[in-house]
Amino acid sequence: MITWRRTFDDAPHDFVAERDGLTLGRVYRHRPGGLEREVWFWTASGLLTTAAEIGKVYGEAQTREEAIGALLDAVERARAWSERTGKPYMRPNPPGWLRS
């Protein structure tokens, strides 16, 4: 089961996804270059594989839901890569990593 929590207490549009004690990635809203438009940025973190092996591991989306979907797709591609290669796809979180 995936658990979502705020990355920082004072950041209402900044979230981290975790599963089984591993940080899967981050999704947050931002304005690139101070532009008037807002976009959602996503990044899969802690992967032990590369974009060359599994495809895109970060990007922008127009909505939070699209960003979440893209993040989870990247994690699923990494998991499938792990099954094919027999290698782990995520590194464990260091003690105290982003914990409040």
Characterization of this structure:
It contains two helices and five strands; from the N terminus they run ββββαβα. With 100 residues, it is an alpha+beta fold. The chain has one domain (3-85). The protein has a five-stranded antiparallel sheet with strand order 1-2-3-4-5, covered by helices on one side. The radius of gyration is 14 Å and the shape is globular.
In short:
By secondary structure, the protein is of the alpha+beta class.
Task: Spell out the blueprint of helices and strands.
Blueprint: E1 3-6, E2 14-19, E3 22-30, E4 39-44, H1 51-54, E5 58-61, H2 64-85
Antiparallel strand pairs: 1-2, 2-3, 3-4, 4-5
| Low-pLDDT ranges | none
Strand order of the largest sheet: 1-2-3-4-5
The amount of helix comes to 25-40%
Query: Regarding quaternary structure, how should these chains be classified?
Result: single chain
List keywords for this structure.
2 helices, single chain, five-stranded antiparallel sheet, alpha+beta, globular, 26% helix, 100 residues
